[in-house]
C-alpha cells in the first residue's frame, strides 16, 4: 500500500512502529476506551434485538483488541494475526446483521445447535447431562433448528452440513458489507496459520512478520464497529462527530486505503485502489 512514509512497508517491529508513529498506541488505546464507553452508556429497547447484538458483539471484541495489541507490543505478529481473523469475522457478521435485521433471529436461533454440540460433548467426556425437562426441551429445540438450518446437500457426498446460521460464505458476506478488501489479510492468511498448512509453516518461519497489514486491518475493524453502532443508535443518514473522528484518525495514519467505509467518503468502484486524504472528510 502506498503511504506518506516511503519505508513504512518495511516496518516489522513495535520499536520501528513507535519511531514512525509515536502517538499510534495512545490513539488505539483511546478508541478501545471509547468503544467500551459506547457499550456502557447505550441502553437499547427490550425489543431491539439488533441493538442488543451490536453491544454484545462490540463487548466481545474489546478483550480481543486488547490481546491483539498486547501481542503486537511483544512483536508476536503472527499470533496477533490469528486474533485478527476472529475480530474481522465477527465485525463482518455484525455489519451484515445490522444491514439485514431479519437475519438477527436466525443468528440467535442457531445457538440451540451450538449448545447441543457442547452439551453432547460434555456428556460423552464427563458423563454429565441436563436433567428433565431441560434435556427434552433442548432436544426438541435442536431438532427444530436442524430442520430450519438444513442446507443443500453436498453434490459429492450427499451430506447436509449444518456449520453456520447462514448459507453465505465468509467471502460472500464480507463483499456484501463492503469489507471484502480485507478478506485476504484478515481471513485467508490467518486461516492458513490457524490450520496445519505448509503455507502457514513457511509464513511463521519467515522473516517478514505482518505488522503493517495487521494494524491496518485492526484499525479499520475498530472504525467499522464505531460506524455500525452510530448508524443504528443515532441516525443512519447522519455523520456524527465520533464517526468523523474515527475515520479521520484512520486516514491520518494510513493515508491510502481500499475502503470508503460503506460509501461515506466517496463513490468508488469495488475492487479499485483509492487514496483518501484527511481533507476529503465532511
List keywords for this structure.
single chain; 282 residues; 12 helices; 2 strands; disordered N terminus
Describe the protein.
The protein has twelve helices and two strands, in the order ααααααααααααββ. The chain has helices at residues 14-20, 24-41, 49-73, 77-99, 103-109, 111-126, 134-148, 170-176, 183-194, 198-204, 211-233, 241-254, and strands spanning 256-257, 274-275. It is mostly helical and 282 residues long. The two termini are 24 Å apart. It folds into two domains: 8-101 and 164-280, no CATH class; 111-152, no CATH class. Strands 1-2 form a two-stranded antiparallel sheet. Helix 2 (24-41) runs antiparallel to helix 3, helix 3 (49-73) packs antiparallel against helix 4 (77-99) and helix 4 (77-99) packs parallel to helix 11.
What proportion strand?
under 5%
Query: Uncertain regions: pLDDT < 50 for 5+ in a row?
Result: 1-7, 267-282
Helical residue percent band: 55-70%
Number of strands: 2
Shape: globular
For the largest beta-sheet, the strand count, sense and barrel status come to: 2 strands, antiparallel
Rg, Å, rounded = 21 Å
For the termini, the CA-CA separation is 24 Å
Mean pLDDT: 84
Q: What is the total domain count?
A: 2
Helix-strand sequence: HHHHHHHHHHHHEE
Q: What strand line-up does the widest sheet have?
A: 1-2
Helix-strand category = mainly alpha
Query: Helical segment tally?
Result: 12
Amino acid at each position: 500500500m502506498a503511504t506518506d512514509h516511503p519505508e513504512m512497508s518495511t516496518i516489522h517491529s513495535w520499536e520501528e512502529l513507535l519511531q514512525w508513529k509515536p502517538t499510534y498506541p495512545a490513539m488505539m488505546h483511546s478508541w478501545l476506551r471509547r468503544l467500551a464507553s459506547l457499550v456502557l452508556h447505550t441502553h437499547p429497547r427490550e425489543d431491539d434485538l439488533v441493538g442488543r447484538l451490536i453491544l454484545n458483539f462490540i463487548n466481545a471484541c474489546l478483550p480481543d483488541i486488547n490481546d491483539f495489541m498486547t501481542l503486537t507490543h511483544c512483536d508476536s505478529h503472527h499470533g496477533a494475526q490469528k486474533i485478527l481473523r476472529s475480530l474481522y469475522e465477527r465485525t463482518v457478521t455484525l455489519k451484515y446483521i445490522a444491514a439485514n435485521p431479519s437475519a438477527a433471529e436466525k443468528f440467535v436461533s442457531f445457538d440451540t445447535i451450538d449448545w447441543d454440540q457442547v452439551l453432547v460433548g460434555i456428556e460423552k467426556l464427563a458423563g454429565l447431562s441436563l436433567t428433565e425437562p431441560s434435556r427434552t426441551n433442548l432436544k426438541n429445540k435442536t431438532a427444530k433448528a436442524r430442520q430450519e438450518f438444513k442446507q443443500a446437500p453436498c453434490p459429492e457426498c450427499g451430506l447436509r452440513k449444518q456449520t453456520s446460521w447462514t448459507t453465505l460464505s465468509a467471502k460472500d458476506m464480507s463483499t456484501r458489507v463492503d469489507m471484502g478488501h480485507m478478506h485476504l489479510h484478515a481471513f485467508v492468511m490467518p486461516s492458513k496459520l490457524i490450520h496445519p498448512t505448509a503455507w502457514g509453516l513457511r509464513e511463521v518461519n519467515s522473516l517478514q512478520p505482518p505488522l503493517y497489514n495487521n494494524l491496518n486491518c485492526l484499525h479499520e475493524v475498530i472504525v467499522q464497529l464505531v460506524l455500525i453502532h452510530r448508524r443504528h443508535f443515532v441516525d443512519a443518514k447522519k455523520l456524527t462527530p465520533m464517526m468523523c473522528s474515527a475515520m479521520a484518525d484512520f486516514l491520518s495514519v494510513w493515508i491510502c486505503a481500499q475502503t470508503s467505509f460503506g460509501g461515506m467518503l466517496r463513490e468508488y468502484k469495488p475492487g479499485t485502489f483509492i487514496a483518501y486524504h484527511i481533507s476529503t472528510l465532511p
